[in-house]
Design a protein that fits this description.
The protein is α/β, with parallel strands linked by helices and 334 residues long. The chain has 13 helices and 12 strands. It has 2 domains: 194 residues, Isopropylmalate Dehydrogenase; 138 residues, Isopropylmalate Dehydrogenase, CATH 3.40.718.10.
Amino acid sequence: MVGLAPIAISMGEPAGIGPDLILQLYAGRRDTPLPPFIIVGSMAFLAARARRLGLNINFAQVTTAEAAAHFPVALPVLHVEGLVPDKPGETSALSGKVVIESIARAVGEALSGNVRAVVTAPIHKAALYTAGFKYPGHTEYLAALCANGEGAPLPVMMLAHDTLRVVPLTIHVPLHRVAAMVTGKLIRDTVLVVEHDLRTRFGVEEPRIAIAGLNPHAGENGSIGTEDRDIILPAVIDLQHNGSKVEGPIPADTLFHPPNWRKYDAVIAMYHDQALIPIKTVAFDQAVNVTLGLPLVRTSPDHGTAFDLAGTGRASTASMLAALQLADRLAGGA
């Protein structure tokens, strides 16, 4: 990893466990080697949280160019101005502004080539809305930050653990809106993004992708809903005619049985919980959220803010560590 740029980690919701996990990982870096990273967030808050956790950490307020040199002896921080109280479990609109800015700064550093990947700690969307946040979630905000003259890219959320990968076609929308949002174009566009990133970032030369059905038993040829027959199947056939190794629609209740799941390099589910329930069942503490389709590498732990554990030091660092290690690998590290 000599000569590689650092990874930027946005600090996430201060009232949650995100900052704790980053600090705990850094404090244990001699036992668990880590790629050099820089936290984007409030220096004063991070120092206060470290004291609360009883962690003896030196901090260095630096630029991204200086981060790798400081990393062995002091935790590099790209400081974001703002009032961030150290109150585990208590969100604040003032903190929300710093959280939003920390994400924007991390992405800006990545787009400028100053860092080679972005890892985002969990956010609490309701807290950010009080600070003016206008997006359904991290994924959509990242796409907006990456927009250029041609518009925003199509962001695709992938949850990954080892060789098990799942993509929700629709993400942060009410369930009653899902069926209307499942279109042939969205399926085709999503498959192309997933194929591209599996090849270019994950090293999968010929991606095999499964498409889950929307309705029970994938609609049973229209007797339990027509979307699988009339929308999903034609999109799959069109993709196959254009060379994609894609199959579906496959009933979700059998597709996510691990021996079936492992036949594919990724599964595209139709909605949020259809994707997240199986991956969290098999890898709750180890799965990683990866955003595909962006001009940068972005990963995140696959869990929320866990307010009840914030400030206690009892939260598992496993998913945050997995997110950091995957970001390192996808961005040309180990």
